Recover the amino acids of this structure.
């Protein structure tokens, strides 16, 4: 049983902890939190050992009537692997702690790539992280693009990719972020950081990205163009993508026109927090003009990296024989693909049994 | 003096009427309206003769205490040229009226291309409309793309264009349109109608477009990729575009990050309604990677076609010698380019005097 510590219990951390909890080969060693806010009460309710990460230590937790088990150092001490889900930039300053304890560590995409030995997406480069001291699970957008590019590159070859990322302004709980009624080129300069970030996973990929920000909180939406090195039919591309366990091809018959209905669908399906772990690709948007492939996909910024973090834990700890084994185990335990109807072009989804 | 009738006095019609009013060679023959709403009181206040277009004729106007001068037939009778600004699809049903009166007519981009002899953008194909019986001023988005493509095609050649149009959900007054908090691929199918519509102006252009809809009301934002037939520097492209009188290169120093500040700027500058008649291109977004040009531009959906309608009036009526003469006269009378600082790469804007 792997004891996994989660340093930070915000948007990503709480999801990773809950995902660890349902894995057959992992247990939550504990979670850290700076302040006793509503998420701390959730950690307490779940029965996770709570470690105080703020400057005032356990004082504010005592005041809030929440028991703590120690400091972040104590958390690392009881962990076989640590997943650092602190805010972007903070993770790098924690790296020394993990090194001091000789504990493998996983960082998030908000950190610079050099924080870790490898930038990680399970479908693309699981093996590169096997046995490494640290891995950086790339951002939600980079994860979404990498999952898509992996089968396209393997099957058709990618000459060049051009993506416009229409990003949600903030998460549902981030009430101080904007815009309220505007569309912002963000950043105005091209390329956005997403293209270079994808290259941390696919070093040889030719990709240009443009970022925008809009007044939604639900999901990112990518407008994707991939100039392929061959010219498959749109139907062949749909079948290829439909065979990927972390890509969901939205059948036209579902009548899902945007992120709102997508998340209503996953809430209806009983997903925890209504999370959408899969890239959601509108099946009828998959279009091939000459060798230009186009499609739209929606990415749940709070959720798609969660199964990747689980796979990264297995890769660093060398407990699983292959990427496929880990991905299938994560999917099966978490419920990736579950509750979603299959697009008619989709082959049966892989499971831990096949 | 050209007597210009405006059939319809909504978002576009009221702007076209006000633009006609300030031209030295045109006068407003009258405007039509179906109901005596707030815009009818504006027409009355401006002193435009009001013609009743609804099924109940003048009755509702009488009840509202607004004088009417007759029906749409009467309006066409007193007009040398009619600009039809009725809702999309209604214009086509009015075509017979204009033909019966042998009156040249201008339609808007919401109509099918076959409603008129020519689909029109002054910078691209003014001469094609000279002396024609009818012209269709293409939609705001198609106008914005055509103004951009014309100098690029002439100077560098266009191998292929790929554009993602992130469209405002509705205009500020369209309170029943959505989305409120979502990003919609719209249409989900690729290409959106914009690519084929641009081809009504540039028949040989290779272009794929993807449309989206977001919860803003202010402007459309285009994420543009143009694969050129040559490889200019970004600075050369900025200089080329800066010389175009209906393209505004937003200097980075202005600190304008989106449509909100753009329109605040034009309101501060004293523009009528704060209208933005120009394509607004973020100067620092202009990027060339190999022969791929990228940029972001914002398009004010209520305003950019207004100067085009004025030029179309002149083209149909054959009153002006050249496209350049008409464009300069329209710009000068309306104030296109006025109140906007020049980007350092911009050459002096053309005026009626040069």
């Amino acid at each position: 049983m792997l004891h996994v510590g989660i340093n930070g219990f915000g948007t990503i951390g709480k999801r990773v902890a809950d995902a660890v909890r349902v894995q057959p080969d992992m247990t939550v060693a504990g979670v850290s939190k700076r302040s006793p806010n509503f998420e701390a009460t959730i950690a307490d309710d779940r029965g996770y050992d709570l470690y105080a990460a703020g400057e005032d230590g356990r004082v504010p937790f005592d005041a809030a009537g929440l028991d703590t088990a120690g400091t972040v150092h104590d958390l690392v001490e009881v962990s076989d692997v640590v997943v650092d889900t602190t805010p972007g930039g903070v993770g790098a300053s924690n790296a020394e702690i993990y090194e001091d304890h000789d504990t493998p560590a996983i960082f998030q995409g908000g950190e610079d790539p050099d924080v870790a030995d490898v930038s990680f997406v399970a479908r693309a480069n699981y093996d590169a992280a096997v046995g490494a001291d640290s891995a950086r699970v790339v951002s939600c957008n980079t994860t979404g693009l990498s999952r898509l590019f992996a089968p396209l590159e393997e099957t058709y070859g990618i000459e060049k990719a051009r993506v416009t990322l229409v990003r949600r302004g903030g998460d549902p709980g981030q009430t101080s972020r904007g815009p309220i009624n505007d569309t912002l080129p963000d950043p105005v300069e091209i390329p956005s950081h997403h293209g270079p970030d994808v290259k941390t996973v696919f070093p040889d990929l030719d990709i240009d990205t443009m970022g925008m920000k809009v007044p939604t909180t639900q999901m990112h939406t990518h407008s994707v163009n991939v100039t392929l090195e061959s010219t498959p039919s749109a139907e062949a591309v749909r079948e290829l993508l439909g065979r990927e366990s972390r890509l969901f091809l939205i059948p036209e018959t579902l009548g899902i026109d945007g992120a709102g209905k997508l998340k209503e669908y996953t809430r209806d399906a009983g997903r925890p927090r209504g999370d959408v772990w899969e890239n959601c690709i509108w099946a009828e948007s998959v279009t091939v003009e000459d060798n230009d492939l186009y499609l739209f996909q929606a990415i749940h910024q709070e959720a798609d990296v969660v199964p990747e973090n689980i796979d990264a834990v297995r890769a660093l700890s060398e407990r699983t024989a292959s990427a496929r084994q880990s991905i299938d185990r994560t999917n099966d335990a978490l419920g990736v693909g579950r509750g979603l109807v299959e697009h008619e072009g989709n082959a049966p989804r892989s499971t831990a049994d096949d």
Observations:
- Residues 350-354 of chain B have pLDDT under 50 and may be disordered.
